[in-house]
């Protein structure tokens, strides 16, 4: 019979029973219980009516009732046959019981009338149910007992009527005896249908086949023994020996099947734990704590039910510590656990060791007896789950149902082995949860990382529209790291994470993406509300941070993105929102510190992506070229050289400004390609001039990334040798701030280049560190005054003072001073009066393509008298 909530409920004389099914939802279980009550009333009504009809209207056999003790002896025989039954689980959820009730039944046909056999069967069956505490199904089983015996006598009568004669013959008794277990099984299968449990037709047919085979063997033994003894009274020892031999075969067979059943149960429990763990990993987690534990209590409930079915227990209780610091969770399989849950002081929970303890209320001390009474149990098997002396949980099995004598040694052994497997599986599950937590969380702050954030926000993004993803960047961390070290930078990141958590609350999904970048998901806010929250968050994060007795000011940028009308709720929206928020926070660098994403931002970054991906091809196809801007000596008006400037004529975007594509190329790691291209073109140009008798230098801008390449000096040397250009005709211009970003790597490279004879110039001087201490460390030959000061010195006395100071500082260090951005005569005259060495700007010339540069040089030069192989270039005014 299926488990209906109170343990295996079966007609006791039946030779086969089906037990243990998955637990059902509460509402469906209540409906099933109502259906089963109606079914019970129907079975009981039909049983009483059939028994009354047979007793009153048709008594096919009267038997021999002269001896008064026949009834009690039959009842005792039925009771003994049932208690000697052998339970075998043929598969998960199906229990097959080999019993000997057919033996007293077949004998009862010959020695007692219908009423006596019926009464004996009822007394034995109901007594067994009460001993096993299956009180909830007594009425159903009473009706089943009535139908079994009534059907058995009716079939026997029909067979005898067909054979003829008034005395009962053995074929009729054998047919009637087989009817009883068959009727019990049909009623059980009908109950399975009423309870809406599933059983395949093939399984039901195989079950009925086993019942008929075992019933036939038992009935044949009983019938043969009765006939032999009635015919030859001295033959009873032989009959007893045959019965004992058959019992021994049954017991041996049951032991083999028990071993097979126990192995399957161990495998099932281990696989259920492992499978639930893998499902927890694959399951989308909608809460942050789900990512940490991956726990589903319902899965452990199924495991408890499986153990309960295997032990034929009324109840199995799993008390599990699923997380190292959490309290134990209680999961019950079978009958509900009465009273309050056990605490750490409970004597059954605080058991030492790891072996199974067997407690009976009649033999236990007062504390254990009280604990059993609190659980509503008469006996219990209890085993702790331990791993490396750490208590992972406790398993309790209460009240064995299938045997009147309770749990035996096989049950103790099975539970002990199962507990060992369960402890190992639980320990592995906790390890998996730890690995899963580490995979989804940032080790420094304990917040979610990028994969964890994506996992958590997937469902909210898919289901809701009133959400926003915020991206926060702090730009002070690298400075703190350079000045105080990574430890203090990490402390600053942790402090920022705490401020975000305190500002937004613990329920807001929050992640540290990388460095000092955070992301969070806001829900239930409109666009103005999201913007106000972003402003409040920026204000909190921009407040000074106390770091090592210092106060650090942190500039904070916040960008956010919300789902648009075009979004369709697919998984890709998670990545889209994150990308949009990232684009928005990058756009804040234009001035605003809080920006919402707009589609035009995406177009800008898409354009930048196209430029990066097409750059190599653009060089190969000639879209990228080098223009040259002349530099002249202020005192002599001679053209000393040019600065090589890269230009890109894009087929789709047109002429691209270097300030747009050079930073993108540099960020994409392609600056080596760019520098190599410009250097090669510049050296080819110098070589042509040398072949024409001109000696002009060329300046190439150098990226800070090139100064991190230890092989860069060797590459430059190879290029100079290839084009046979003297090193002094090549100038590398670099920004002071770029060099000092990582001086330990940059300075050795610069010294090596300087040793080769290459001229080194500090570009944009006045905008970086601009200190004498830093400038003295650099092996440079020139300083270039930033054009912002040169452009403003005609109207701003402050800019004029800065330019004069730089000229004086450069000369004091023996450096050549170059002024950029010279666009007016007054600026040229002022620079010349200060003693500035070289001028460069639109007043002299804009950057020119190679052919236009040649024309410009031809128009503004004169051949020096007396020289035939060398030209002196002089600016003509």
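^ structure tokens above, recovered residues below v
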């Amino acid at each position: 019979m299926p488990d209906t909530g109170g343990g295996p409920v079966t007609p006791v004389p039946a030779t086969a029973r089906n037990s243990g099914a998955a637990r059902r939802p509460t509402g469906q279980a209540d409906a099933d219980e109502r259906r089963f009550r109606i079914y019970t009333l129907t079975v009981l009504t039909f049983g009483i009516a059939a028994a009354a009809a047979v007793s009153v209207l048709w008594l096919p056999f009267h038997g021999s009732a002269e001896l008064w003790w026949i009834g009690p002896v039959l009842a005792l025989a039925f009771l003994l046959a049932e208690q000697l039954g052998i339970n075998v689980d043929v598969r998960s959820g199906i229990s097959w019981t080999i019993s000997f009730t057919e033996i007293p039944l077949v004998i009862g046909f010959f020695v007692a009338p219908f009423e006596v056999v019926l009464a004996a069967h009822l007394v034995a069956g109901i007594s067994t149910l009460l001993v096993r505490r299956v009180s909830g199904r007594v009425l159903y089983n009473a009706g089943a007992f009535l139908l079994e015996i009534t059907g058995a006598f009716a079939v026997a009568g029909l067979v005898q009527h067909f054979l003829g004669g008034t005395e009962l013959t053995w074929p009729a008794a054998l047919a009637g005896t087989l009817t009883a277990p068959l009727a019990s099984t049909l009623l059980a299968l009908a109950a399975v249908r009423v309870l809406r449990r599933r059983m395949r037709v093939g399984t039901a047919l195989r079950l009925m086949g086993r019942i008929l085979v075992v019933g036939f063997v038992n009935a044949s033994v009983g019938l043969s023994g009765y006939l032999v003894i009635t015919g030859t009274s001295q033959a009873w020892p032989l009959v007893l020996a045959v019965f004992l031999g058959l019992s021994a075969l049954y017991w041996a067979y049951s032991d083999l099947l028990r071993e097979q059943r126990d192995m399957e149960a161990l495998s099932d429990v281990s696989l259920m734990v492992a499978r639930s763990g893998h499902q927890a990993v694959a399951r989308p987690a909608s809460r942050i704590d789900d990512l940490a534990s991956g726990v589903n209590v319902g899965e452990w409930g199924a495991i408890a039910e499986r153990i309960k079915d295997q032990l034929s227990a009324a109840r199995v209780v799993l008390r599990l510590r699923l997380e190292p610091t959490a309290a134990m969770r209680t999961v019950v399989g079978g009958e509900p656990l009465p009273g309050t849950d056990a605490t750490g002081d409970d004597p059954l929970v605080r058991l030492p060791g790891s072996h199974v303890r067997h407690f009976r209320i009649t033999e236990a001390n007062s504390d254990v007896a009280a604990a059993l009474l609190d659980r509503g149990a008469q006996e219990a098997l209890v085993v702790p789950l331990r791993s490396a002396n750490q208590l992972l949980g406790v398993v309790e099995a209460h009240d064995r149902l299938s045997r009147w004598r309770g749990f035996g040694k096989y049950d103790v052994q099975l539970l002990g082995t199962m507990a060992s497997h369960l402890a190992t599986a639980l320990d592995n599950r906790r390890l998996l949860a730890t690995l899963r937590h580490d995979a989804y969380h940032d080790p420094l702050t304990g917040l979610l990382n990028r994969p964890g954030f994506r996992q958590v926000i997937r469902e909210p993004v898919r289901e809701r529209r009133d959400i926003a993803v915020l991206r926060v960047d702090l730009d002070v961390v690298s400075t703190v790291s350079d000045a105080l070290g990574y430890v203090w930078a990490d402390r600053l990141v942790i402090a920022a994470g705490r401020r975000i958590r305190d500002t937004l609350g613990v329920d807001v999904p929050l992640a540290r993406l990388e460095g000092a970048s955070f992301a969070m998901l806001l829900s239930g806010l409109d666009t103005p509300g999201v913007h106000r929250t972003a402003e409040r968050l920026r204000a909190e994060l921009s407040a000074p941070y106390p770091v090592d007795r210092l106060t650090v000011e942190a500039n904070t940028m916040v960008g956010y993105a919300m789902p648009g009308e075009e979004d369709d709720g697919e998984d890709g929206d998670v990545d889209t929102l994150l990308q949009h928020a990232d684009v928005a926070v990058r756009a804040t660098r234009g001035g605003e510190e809080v920006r919402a994403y707009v589609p035009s931002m995406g177009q800008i970054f898409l354009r930048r992506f196209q430029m990066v991906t097409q750059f190599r091809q653009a060089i190969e196809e000639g879209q990228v070229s080098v223009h040259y801007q002349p530099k002249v000596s202020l005192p002599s008006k001679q053209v000393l050289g040019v600065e090589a400037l890269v230009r890109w004529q894009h087929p789709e975007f047109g002429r691209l400004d270097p300030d747009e594509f050079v930073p993108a190329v540099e960020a994409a790691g392609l600056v080596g390609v760019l520098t190599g291209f410009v250097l090669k073109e510049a050296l080819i140009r110098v070589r042509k001039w040398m072949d024409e008798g001109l000696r002009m230098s060329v300046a190439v801008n150098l990226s800070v990334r090139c100064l991190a390449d230890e092989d860069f000096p060797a590459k430059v040397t190879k290029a100079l040798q290839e084009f046979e250009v003297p090193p002094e005709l090549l100038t590398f211009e670099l920004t002071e701030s770029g060099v000092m970003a990582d001086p330990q790597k940059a300075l050795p490279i610069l010294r090596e280049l300087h040793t080769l004879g290459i001229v080194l110039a500090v570009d944009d001087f006045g905008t970086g560190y601009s200190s004498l201490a830093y400038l003295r460390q650099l092996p440079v030959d020139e300083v270039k005054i930033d054009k912002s000061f040169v452009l403003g010195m005609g109207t701003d006395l402050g800019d004029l003072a800065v330019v004069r100071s730089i000229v004086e500082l450069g000369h004091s260090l023996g450096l050549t001073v170059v002024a950029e951005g010279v666009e007016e005569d007054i600026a040229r005259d002022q620079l010349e009066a200060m003693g500035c060495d070289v001028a460069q700007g639109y007043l002299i010339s804009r950057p020119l393509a190679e052919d236009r540069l040649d024309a410009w040089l031809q128009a503004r030069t004169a051949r020096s008298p007396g020289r035939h192989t060398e030209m002196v270039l002089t600016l003509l005014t």
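The chain has four domains: 26-218, 266-440, 455-597, 609-859.
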